[in-house]
Amino acid sequence: MITLKDVFKIYGIGAATVHALNGVSLEIEKGEFVGITGSSGSGKSTLLHMVGLLDEPTKGDVFIGTTDVLELSDEEKSRFRLKRFGYVFQDYALVPELSAAENVLLLAMARGLDDEEAKIKSVEILEKVGLSGRIEHLPGEMSGGEQQRVAIARALVNNPEILFADEPCANLDSVNSKNVLDLFREINRELKQTIVMVSHEDWHIPYFDRIIRLHDGKIIEDYKPKK
Ligand SMILES: Nc1ncnc2c1ncn2[C@@H]1O[C@H](COP(=O)(O)OP(=O)(O)OP(=O)(O)O)[C@@H](O)[C@H]1O
C-alpha cells in the first residue's frame, strides 16, 4: 500500500542540522497493524509523517500503490489525507463547542456525504467505538478516553485505507489506554483496517502484528512478534 525507499529527513541548517531519518525503506501491507517503536528522538513521529503524507522527505521516495507521492500537487495530497487516510493524535484535537456526533459529522460532510447519510454514518461509528451513550456530549463533558474514542470515530468515518495514530494513548491512564488498544485491535481484525501506530510503551507490543523499531533515524528491527 505504502512504500518508502531510502528516505532521509533532515531538519534545520548548519550547526542546527538534525538527521531525523537516515535512509529508511519499508513497505506497509494492507490489513497490517504496525507499531513504530523506539526511544525518544529516534524518528518515530517523523516516519509517521512521511507515511501519512503529513510531511515530505528531504531525499528518497514515497509511493502509495504505484503513485509517486512527490509528484502529487498539494491539492492532490490534501485529497488523499481527507478521503483515503484517517489520523489520531495524542491530544484528540476535537472542536470543543461541538458534540461528539458533530465532531464526527464534520469530517463525514467534508468528504462529501449528504447530510442524512453523514448523520447515520457518524452515529453508527460512535456506537462502534462504544460511545452510544455520549453522542450528544461536548468534549468537555467526556473523559480523556472517551474523547480519544470520538477522535478515533472521526478518523474512521471515511472508511480510510490506513489509520495513522501518533501515541494515541500518551495522555490516557492504563485502563483507557488498554481500551483504545483493544478497540484498535478489534477494528483491525473485524474491519481489516490497516493501522500504523507510534508507541514507546513496551506493553503495547503484543497488540501489533508487526513492529518497526527505530534508533537514530534508522530501522534496527522489523519483525512480527510471535502470538
Ligand atoms: N520540526 C523539527 N525541527 C527540527 N528538529 C526536529 C523537528 N521535528 C523533529 N525534530 C528532531 O528530529 C528527531 C526525531 O524526532 P521525532 O519527533 O520523529 O522523534 P520521536 O521518536 O517521535 O520522539 P518522541 O518519542 O520523543 O516523540 C529529534 O531529534 C527531534 O528533536
Automatic annotation (TrEMBL):
Has keyword Nucleotide-binding? yes
Q: Which domain of life is it from?
A: Archaea
What SUPFAM superfamilies does UniProt report for this protein, alphabetically? P-loop containing nucleoside triphosphate hydrolases
Q: What InterPro entries is this protein classified in?
A: AAA+_ATPase, ABC_transporter-like_ATP-bd, ABC_transporter-like_CS, MacB-like_ATP-bd, P-loop_NTPase
Q: Which UniProt keywords apply?
A: ATP-binding, Nucleotide-binding, Transport
Q: Per the record, what is one GO cellular component?
A: membrane protein complex
Q: Name one GO molecular function term.
A: ATP binding
Q: Does the keyword Heme apply?
A: no
Q: Where is the ABC transporter domain?
A: 2-227
Among Pfam families, the record links this protein to: ABC_tran
Similarity-based family: Belongs to the ABC transporter superfamily.
What PANTHER family would the database entry show?
A: ALPHA-D-RIBOSE 1-METHYLPHOSPHONATE 5-TRIPHOSPHATE SYNTHASE SUBUNIT PHNL (PTHR42798:SF7), LIPOPROTEIN-RELEASING SYSTEM ATP-BINDING PROTEIN LOLD (PTHR42798)
What is the protein's given name?
ABC transporter ATP-binding protein
The species this protein belongs to is Methanochimaera problematica
